[in-house]
From TrEMBL:
It is a multi-pass membrane protein. Keywords: Cell membrane, Membrane, Transmembrane, Transmembrane helix. Coiled coil: none annotated. This is Putative ABC transport system permease protein. Belongs to the ABC-4 integral membrane protein family. Residues 21-232 form the MacB-like periplasmic core domain. Its main location: membrane. It comes from Hymenobacter psychrotolerans DSM 18569. It is found in: Cell membrane. Pfam families: FtsX (PF02687), MacB_PCD (PF12704). The chain crosses the membrane at residues 21-42, 287-312, 336-355, 375-395. It comes from the Bacteria.
Length: 412
């Protein structure tokens, strides 16, 4: 009997004992479903959380002048204070970095501003921020209605503004504020956009209680002291964040004219610590999920071995006939091994389908996870199925191959 004939014989044997085969395959499928399902769910939830962290700035870093915001080190000792990052330096850094990443430049103008419009006025708790064309995207703020600043408005410093949802509800509750005017800091601004409601309850009210004006407009407004410009750099490739941080640090040192051997005159604040913690946590969860799946598969392999032992006992006379007709011990062993592998693969395919569905289902229940097809875990599941079939079927197959043909023919 060749390999192909052994496979055909395995399917004939499976068909003749269909109920037993189905139950055995189900045991294997449950083990594979547990393994693939848990690991798929972890990967899908990790992907969803990574997207969330990215929207919160986990794939970005900020640059600020060292010591400018906090002049005292630990123990009350006054540290060295470097000059703030100027607009010229920020623009030069942005230009030098080019297309390597997305750079947003912003400046905090006021945090206790009263805004008037349409005969109404807000409480003096509105924050005014000046930003460039990348500010909204890099801060993950979405426009509800209207438009962003045009290149001409950004270049000339036009008096236009994008307001938060809370300001719109307060000043223009029953009509659209677009192309209407609001008054703040002694100037009149035309409203060109309204931000989506974010529901932020943090300090300053988040985007709901904010007025965004062009960066050049903010730079031209009268003030008592120099503006402090914040430079935020973001990337869509989280794996390159460390490399990008090093490259950006070198560019900023050159822009700030930091001498060789001198410490950085600025601080780099990375916000990917939560994402790193997630990677560490997901690694532990995968180990736990693999152990759960392994224990389930161990039970399935024991059940399969028991079924194969019963099958060998029931087919003792058949084995004797095959040997009498010239089948070798190697062919008998191969026949039972292939039968065990076929049962495992059938159960494994079902388990993989159920596991992928279960894993993505759990991810969708927990959060807005994307549907993932874990090709690696699916391939691993099939390899494990074949391994379980070999491990479970080897002893029964060896026992069948070792049977004496004469004693087998006498078996009733």
């Amino acid at each position: 009997m060749d390999l192909l004939e052994n496979i055909r014989e395995a399917f004939r044997s499976i068909k003749s004992n269909l109920l037993r085969t189905v139950l055995t395959a189900l045991i294997v499928s449950i083990g594979i479903m547990a393994l693939v399902g848990i690991l798929t769910a972890i990967d899908a939830m990790k992907y969803s959380l990574n997207q969330t962290f990215a929207s919160l700035g986990a794939n970005s870093f900020e640059m600020k002048a060292k010591g400018y915001a906090n002049r005292f080190r630990r123990g009350g000792v006054q540290g060295r204070v470097y000059p703030p990052i100027s607009l010229l330096q920020a623009k030069k850094y942005k230009q030098t970095l080019g297309d390597e990443a997305q750079v947003g430049i912003s400046a905090f103008i006021s945090g206790a501003t009263e805004v008037k419009g349409n005969g109404q006025k807000t409480n003096p708790n509105v924050q005014v921020v000046a930003g460039d064309e990348n500010y909204l995207q890099i801060q993950s703020y979405n426009l509800g209605t209207g438009r962003t600043f045009s290149p001409l408005e950004l270049e000339r410093g036009t008096n236009v503004a994008i307001i938060g949802a809370e300001l719109k509800d307060k000043l223009y509750p029953s009509e659209s504020p677009l192309n209407k005017y609001v008054y703040l800091l002694g100037r009149r601004f035309q409203v060109v956009g309204v931000l989506e409601k974010s529901g932020s309850s943090g300090q300053g009210g988040g985007a709901d209680r904010m007025v965004l004006i062009p960066l050049e407009t903010g730079n031209q407004m009268p003030r008592q002291r120099a503006l402090t410009f914040d430079v935020k750099t973001a990337t869509t490739r989280p794996g390159e964040l460390s490399y990008l941080t090093g490259q950006a640090t070198g560019i900023m040192r050159a822009v700030r004219h930091d001498q060789l051997g001198q410490e950085d005159s600025f601080e780099v604040e990375r916000s990917d610590s939560m994402a790193a913690k997630l990677d560490e946590l997901s690694g532990g969860l995968k180990v736990g999920g693999f152990l759960v799946g392994f224990v389930t598969l161990l039970g399935a392999s024991i059940a399969l071995m028991n079924i194969m032992m019963v099958s060998v006992t029931e087919r003792t006379r058949e084995i004797g006939i095959r040997k009498a007709l010239g089948a070798t011990s190697h062919q008998i062993r191969q026949q039972f091994l292939i039968e065990a592998i076929v049962i495992c693969v059938l159960g494994g395919v079902l388990g993989i389908v159920l596991g992928v569905s279960m894993g993505n289902g759990v991810s969708l229940l927990v959060g807005e996870g994307a549907f993932l097809v874990p090709w690696f875990w699916m391939s691993m599941g099939l390899v494990i199925c074949v391994t379980v079939g070999l491990a479970s079927g080897y002893y029964p197959a060896s026992k069948a191959a070792a049977l004496d043909p004469i004693e087998s023919l006498r078996y009733e």
